[in-house]
């Protein structure tokens, strides 16, 4: 979704399309033009009335209003238009869904842009003297003639170092994201722009038992399936050997929904065999989507055009299989964000080094007592290829974007009630986590989503003590509530049942990692592993695509004042010699392949979408 003046809107609309199958729509109302691209099977994204036009990208499942919570059955844009007419702009605060929307109220002379609680679908905007240009795809903004932007070196260095820019900031001058949980109202003459936050996280853990939390988790997921799915629709699920997607499978089966499972792997490894065992126990068919040796090389050329400066190219995990998936199913579920909410995987914890066993996190919260400690826990050193362009280190760059205000802690333009909330609720917005590229990118390929992004589960997370998030095995317990047989099957990374007590889970993870590190293999390919992921660090050393990308873009690298050709080669050589520069190299490859990078140097115009 994007908007701005009508000039050249066709080029921007085409740029929203991932392939040639999307249905596009452009609507011009007075001084406003909005374009949106949607998958053919999705509901109409625009609803036009006498005085109000609503555009919506995403899904809205329910509304929590004065009369309580109700399920919304109609097309999302139609429901939002009705709610706007009944409740005014405040209706957004009651929406349960994953969405971004626009309301044009001609009688009021306003355009309102709204985001869901966590900002799951980012909106990037640029203010001009005459109004606002916005897009859900940051790559498109430079195509608009009113947008005059370039790279902000410090925020770009944050992206290269931390694989994302935090809060509302982006590496583009004059371009920011709309805040999560907000309504931004712009006058149609472009003279005023005001943002109101309708929601922010209030972390208030109560005295609740792990049994109670896990049972509520299970029951809410089943309710979400019943509310958000149709028995006549064909559903798919990316199934790992772990627990988040297994819980999703258990909820789908508990609601009597048929599902086709898919597992991504480089070979038929122990993780793939576990996923097959889980699917068979649920009486669900499963297909292995096997990545060949050149899979990541191909992904590096295609997926960066969906990049929003969050994460890097390999994180749209199933992008190479989208054709097969679209042929088989109408909607693809993932277990995404289950670990974020109910395993506390983003909560800072100390690590211990146990020699040959490796280094492992200790499941105890490491609380920041000062802004300095908070910032220190977020940053890492800038890679060699950008370090020379900075007048100060990344820690100083990050610290300059954090302050204490009356309302609490402001981090990169987003306000939290306290340092604790800024830490525990750090995925407010979701773009604060690099895995948002998986969520955003998968949405481009086909209708998809996760059951875990539900307001009721977010509220449950906010009331759960950190100790239970880290050590409560809440996901495993929830699986046991729904399907004890699935819970008995060992976790792919622990080799103990997912229903086992946390102490056994943790010990099993350590022992399994040790055994795989020292006794597994050698495998047929050096980048293969016994677990769910490719060994990307080894793939870089044994496959030439990163070197080839660097050499292909030598002229571009040398022309950009913030990149050092010598630093790029130093970073690459050091990785070959044993350093772990995976993140720095993959982020660089993503940046070099982004259409926006070429567009800002005047070397590339929009490409024709491909299947």
SSE layout and pairings?
Layout: E1 2-4, H1 9-16, E2 23-29, E3 32-38, E4 46-48, E5 52-65, E6 68-71, H2 76-87, E7 95-105, E8 110-115, E9 124-127, E10 132-135, H3 153-162, E11 175-177, E12 182-187, E13 193-197, H4 210-228, E14 235-238, H5 244-254, E15 259-265, H6 270-281, E16 286-290, H7 295-302, H8 322-328, E17 331-334, H9 338-342, E18 351-353, E19 359-361, H10 371-376, H11 384-387, H12 394-399, E20 402-405, E21 408-411, E22 414-416, H13 419-424, H14 436-445, E23 448-450, H15 455-462, H16 466-471, H17 474-482, H18 484-488, H19 502-519, H20 536-542, H21 545-552, H22 554-559, H23 565-576, H24 582-593, H25 595-599
Parallel strand pairs: 14-15, 14-17, 15-16, 17-23
Antiparallel strand pairs: 1-3, 1-10, 2-3, 4-5, 5-6, 5-7, 7-8, 8-12, 9-10, 9-11, 12-13, 18-19, 20-21, 21-22
Helix pairs in contact: 3-24, 4-5, 4-17, 5-17
Protein name: Asparagine synthase
Pfam family, one: Asn_synthase
Domain Asparagine synthetase: 217-421
Describe this entry's structure for a reader.
It comes from Halalkalicoccus jeotgali (strain DSM 18796 / CECT 7217 / JCM 14584 / KCTC 4019 / B3). One of its GO terms (molecular function) is asparagine synthase (glutamine-hydrolyzing) activity. This is Asparagine synthase. It is a single chain. This protein is an alpha+beta fold. It has four domains: 196 residues, Glutamine Phosphoribosylpyrophosphate, subunit 1, domain 1 (4-Layer Sandwich); 219 residues, HUPs (Rossmann fold, 3-Layer(aba) Sandwich); 58 residues, no CATH class; 54 residues, no CATH class. Strand 7 and strand 8 form a beta hairpin. The longest helix is centred in the middle third of the chain and has 19 residues. The protein is globular. The C terminus is likely disordered.
């Amino acid at each position: 979704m994007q908007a701005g003046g009508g000039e050249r809107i066709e080029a921007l609309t085409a740029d929203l399309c991932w392939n040639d199958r999307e249905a596009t729509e452009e609507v011009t109302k007075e001084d406003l033009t909005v374009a949106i691209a949607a998958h053919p099977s999705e509901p109409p994204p625009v609803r036009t009335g006498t005085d109000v036009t609503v555009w919506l990208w995403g899904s809205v499942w329910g509304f929590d209003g004065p009369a309580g919570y109700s399920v919304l059955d109609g097309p999302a844009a139609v429901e939002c238009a009705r709610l706007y007419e009944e409740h005014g702009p405040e209706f957004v605060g009651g929406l349960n869904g994953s969405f971004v929307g626009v309301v044009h109220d001609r009688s009021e002379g306003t355009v309102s842009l709204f985001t869901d609680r966590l900002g799951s679908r980012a909106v990037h905007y640029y203010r001009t003297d005459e109004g606002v240009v916005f897009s859900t795809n940051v790559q498109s903004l430079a195509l608009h003639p009113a947008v005059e932007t370039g790279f902000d070196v410090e925020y770009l260095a944050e992206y290269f170092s931390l694989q994302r820019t935090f809060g509302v900031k982006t590496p583009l001058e004059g371009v920011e994201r709309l805040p999560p949980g907000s309504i931004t109202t712009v006058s149609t003459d472009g003279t005023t722009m005001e943002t109101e936050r309708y929601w922010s996280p209030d972390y208030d853990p109560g005295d609740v038992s792990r049994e109670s939390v896990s049972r509520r988790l299970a029951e809410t997921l089943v309710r979400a399936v019943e509310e958000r799915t149709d028995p006549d629709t064909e559903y798919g699920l990316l199934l790992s050997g772990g627990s988040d997607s297994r819980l999703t499978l258990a909820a789908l089966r508990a609601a009597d929904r048929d599902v086709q499972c898919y597992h991504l792997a480089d070979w038929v490894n122990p993780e793939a065999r576990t996923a097959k065992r889980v699917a068979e126990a649920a009486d669900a068919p499963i297909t292995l989507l096997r990545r060949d040796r050149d899979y990541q090389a191909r992904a590096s050329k295609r997926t960066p055009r969906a990049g929003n400066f969050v994460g890097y190219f390999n994180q749209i995990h199933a992008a190479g299989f989208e054709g097969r998936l679209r042929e088989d199913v109408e909607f693809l579920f993932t277990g995404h964000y289950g670990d974020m909410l109910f395993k506390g995987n983003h909560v800072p914890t100390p690590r211990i080094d146990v020699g040959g066993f490796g280094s492992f996190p200790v499941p105890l919260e490491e609380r920041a007592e000062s802004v300095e400690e908070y910032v220190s826990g977020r940053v890492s050193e800038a890679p060699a290829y950008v370090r020379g362009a900075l007048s100060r280190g990344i820690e100083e760059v990050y610290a300059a974007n954090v302050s204490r205000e009356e309302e609490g802690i402001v981090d990169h333009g987003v306000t939290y009630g306290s340092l604790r909330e800024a830490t525990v609720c750090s995925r407010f917005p979701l773009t604060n986590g690099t895995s948002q590229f998986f969520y955003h990118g998968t949405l481009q390929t086909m209708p998809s989503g996760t059951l875990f992004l539900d307001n009721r589960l977010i509220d449950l997370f906010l009331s759960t003590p950190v100790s239970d998030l880290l050590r409560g095995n809440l996901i495993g317990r929830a699986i046991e509530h729904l399907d004890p047989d699935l819970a008995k099957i060992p976790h792919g990374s622990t080799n103990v049942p997912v229903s086992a007590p946390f102490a056994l889970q943790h010990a099993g993870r350590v022992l399994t990692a040790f055994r795989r590190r020292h006794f597994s293999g050698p495998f047929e390919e050096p980048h293969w592993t016994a677990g769910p992921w490719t060994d990307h660090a080894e793939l870089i050393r044994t496959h030439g695509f990163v070197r080839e990308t660097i050499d292909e873009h030598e002229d571009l690298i040398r022309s950009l004042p913030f990149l050092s050709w010598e630093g790029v080669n130093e970073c690459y050589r050091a990785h070959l010699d044993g350093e772990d520069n995976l993140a720095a190299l993959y982020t660089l490859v993503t940046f070099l392949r982004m259409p926006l990078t070429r567009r800002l140097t005047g070397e590339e115009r929009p490409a024709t979408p491909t299947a």
